[in-house]
Each structure stands twice: as structure tokens, then as C-alpha cells.
Amino acid sequence: xxxxxxxxxxxxxxxxxxxxxxxxxxxxxxxxxxxxxxxxxxxxxxxxxxxxxxxxxxxxxxxxxxxxxxxxxxxxxxxxxxxxxxxxxxxxxxxxxxxxxxxxxxxxxxxxxxxxxxxxxxxxxxxxxxxxxxxxxxxxxxxxxxxxxxxxxxxxxxxxxxxxxxxxxxxxxxxxxxxxxxxxxxxxxxxxxxxxxxxxxxxxxxxxxxxxxxxxxxxxxxxxxxxxxxxxxxxxxxxxxxxxxxxxxxxxxxxxxxxxxxxxxxxxxxxxxxxxxxxxxxxxxxxxxxx
Amino acid sequence: xxxxxxxxxxxxxxxxxxxxxxxxxxxxxxxxxxxxxxxxxxxxxxxxxxxxxxxxxxxxxxxxxxxxxxxxxxxxxxxxxxxxxxxxxxxxxxxxxxxxxxxxxxxxxxxxxxxxxxxxxxxxxxxxxxxxxxxxxxxxxxxxxxxxxxxxxxxxxxxxxxxxxxxxxxxxxxxxxxxxxxxxxxxxxxxxxxxxxxxxxxxxxxxxxxxxxxxxxxxxxxxxxxxxxxxxxxxxxxxxxxxxxxxxxxxxx
Lengths: 291, 253
What we know:
The structure holds two protein chains of two kinds.
Chain A: H1 2-46, H2 52-56, E1 59-60, E2 68-69, H3 72-103, H4 109-123, H5 126-139, H6 146-169, H7 174-182, H8 187-198, H9 200-216, H10 219-222, H11 242-251, H12 255-286
Antiparallel strand pairs in A: 1-2
Helix pairs in contact in A: 1-12, 3-6, 3-9, 3-11, 4-6, 5-6, 6-9, 7-8, 9-12, 11-12
Chain B: E1 5-16, E2 19-30, E3 34-38, H1 45-52, E4 62-70, E5 73-74, H2 82-87, E6 89-92, H3 103-113, H4 119-132, H5 136-139, H6 152-164, E7 170-174, H7 182-195, E8 200-204, H8 208-214, E9 217-222, E10 225-231, H9 232-237, H10 242-248
Parallel strand pairs in B: 3-8, 3-9, 6-7, 7-8
Antiparallel strand pairs in B: 1-2, 1-4, 4-5, 9-10
Helix pairs in contact in B: 3-4, 3-6, 4-6
């Protein structure tokens, strides 16, 4: 009996194994192909418009109709805006996450509810943040400006950053905290000197993810940051952003300007890539002493 | 006991939610001796040990009643500063928990927290306590390396040096050799025996042979209750309670 059963069973299991292996490899392939297609399309369509003046000049002839000049206004605006928003988000995220992990018990009701609210906020579409940011802006007596954009994008980034930080900080073993407490450290000292250091790579990754989301989002800055051909010089003036530049350029009926939209998209992608690489390099450099 | 006890525990009970982890524990822990807390797993050994430096805090469903006096000071008195209590005790946990920093910084962590900023003094402190933990020779040329690169046995001795560097009076060990190989375990046991000349040592273990090797005083816990305690020879040679006898002969474990 056993002799006759074994080979057939084995054959079936082998087929199963191969079937799922092909399925998995196929999925991987599709994802890589998608990435390649997206990047490829952007570069192929944007290449005619891509030139040095794109990144060194501000638009000539207005951002709707401009066929000359560059998008330096949007590049600088986006970098300012995303950096400001990310900084603001870190200032709130890190204390929140340290609080629910070090001060509150990990399983306490407060921690659970905080996590739940972040999950909900994570799912809120960015246009809603845009609308909320607009009301907040009016309420604060601001007009569409770099500052209003920073505040709105910071709100958008906050749940993403906090949840990503929370996931890594949760992994710090409680015994490590106890080791620090038993040396006479306070909770604050433990949080800053032990917890943050232990999870530094994860924290930096969280900041990076949030930055990527912030710099690429169009809907949240649509009503709040405004748009301008000039470089931003003050927090209280409107600032151009890359996603909106792409939006406006694509919306024109002129093929040359549409090509500029793809060039802008290529630049936005390049910026995100560069920042990721830079941050990864920094993480490697600063965590050498950990492992 | 003719000697003055270092720690007096009076009628200590601990609840985690509805579950009672410790029931009315009363015991005096002798000064400058090794007291070993034995008992089957889940009997409350670790909870008792953690109460001693207030790592068990009465919040979020945890209830602590009774009193613990260290040097005649009630440590659960809300007026007592918790860092002051903890500074008096060095803790060795089951798995060595090195801090995410260099070997040097691990030992200097405590002294720095308590205000030692002088670099030369810190260097002396680090060397002194690494030598006391018999780790100095192995690490003196690599003090700036991350502590996580040490072997587990070395890490546990580093934790010992780190604990000693805050100049405690009491060493608490929560199964401090359970993650170590036999040779490293022996090494840690030797250190503990050396230390009892200057420190009160309290060790939790489930290894009976280890208890026999190092204990001066024994406390046997079973299901959250203190069944029997007394000088080690007495308890091992002539246990009074049938449950202690059953545990020592391996009938319950």
C-alpha cells in the first residue's frame, strides 16, 4: 500500500510546488515590469523636453503656457515643502510613538486607540487633507502659502510616519528597557538613549517613506500651497510644487508643454530616488556602531 | 539570623488583573549573602525579584500590596524616588541585554546618568568594573566596538560590569546563566560568589544544582507562595515542607 501511494502523492505535491512557484515568479515579474514601464514611459515621453534649463530656470511664459525656461520654482518649492512638512511631522510623530511605547503600556487602551486612529487617518484620501488644510488655513488667517502647504502635508505624513515608527519601536524588547531602568535611568533617558538608538534605522526609514509620500502628493497642496512662477522666498508666500506642475502642464492642449509634464515627472522620480539612496547611505553610516 | 537583614519583605502580594502572582510573601533577605529563589516555572520567582527594584509598578491592572524595606526604607512608598531605588541594585536578566552602543558606553551609561562627566574618571570606572567582571582582558583593545559583537557569555559579564558601575548594594540575577554555555555559566557563578563579600546577591534559578553550588540562603516559592526559606544547608539537607521535598527530589518541577 505505502509503496503504491508514495509516488503519486509526491507527483501531486511537486506539481503544486511548481504551480505556486511559477505564480510567485510571475507576480514578481509583473511588479518589476510595471516599475520599468512607468519609469520608461516618463523618460521616453519627457526626454524631448528634458534639458539643463529645466532644472536651472524658472518658467518663461507662465506655468500653463510656458514652453521655455524650467521648473526650478517647483523643484525648490517641493523640496522646501516636503522637508518642512517632514520635519514638522517628526516633531509630533516621535513623541507620540515614544509615549505609546515607553510611557503607556503597549497593550493599554490609550495605545490601542492611538494606533487605531492612525490607521484610520492613514486611509483618509489626500484630497480630504487638502480640504481640511484649506479650512485650517482660512481659520488661521493664512492665504495659500508655503506654510499652509507645510502644515497640510505634515498632517498627511503624520499617520504614515507614526505607524511606520511604531512598527519598529514595538520590536524593542521590554527587557532592554528594564535593563536601562535598573541602572537608574528615567523613562525619558531610556526613550532617547536606548529606544531611539536601537531602532534608528527603522525610524529613518519611516521618515523617508513619509517624505516620499509628502513630496509626491498633489491633492493636499492644491488649495493650500498655491502656485507661482517665482522661487519661494518666504513661508507666507505661495510656493510651486512638482506634482502640481505636472498637473498643470499635462492639462494644457500643447504637446510641447505636455512633454514638459513628463520631464517634470522624471525629475520628481529622480529626486525621490536620490533622497532614498542618500538616506540609505546615511543609515548605513550611522548604524555601523550598532551591529 | 544574628545579622541585620538587608531587605525585609512584609506580606507582599501582587495581582496581574485577577490573577494573583504572589501571595503574602514575608521574608528577610540577609546582608552580603547569596540568596537563591528556587521554584518551578510560573511560581512567581521573577515577579518577586522584579518587585525588589520596582520593575513591577502598580498601574494598568497591576496591584501590589504589602511592604518591601531596603535599608529600612519602604520602596513602594510613593514619596520614594524610583531611580534612587534602582540605582541601589544591579540587574542581570535571563538573556543579556546590552544597550545599543559601544562596550565602553555600556559601562559608562549608568555613571553618566548619575552625573559623572569627567572623562578620565569615566575611563577608570569602566576599566575597574570590567576587571571586576573579569572581562577587561578580553575587551581592552576593542572598547569602542558595539557591545552586540561580543559573545553571549561576554555580554552577560558586560551587563554585570554595567550593573556594578552604578555602585549598587544589591545584585539581582534573573536566571542569569540560562542563555549561556556551561563554561560561561561557571564564569558568571564564580563572579557572583566573589561579589558576595561586598554585595547582597539575590538570584532566581530553576537549576537546582546551581542553587546548591552558590546559595547561602534559600527561598522556595510554589504557586505564588513562599513555602520554605532558611540557610541553604538546612533546606537542602532537611526540608520541612513536603512540597519542598517533592521539588528537591524532582517530583514537581
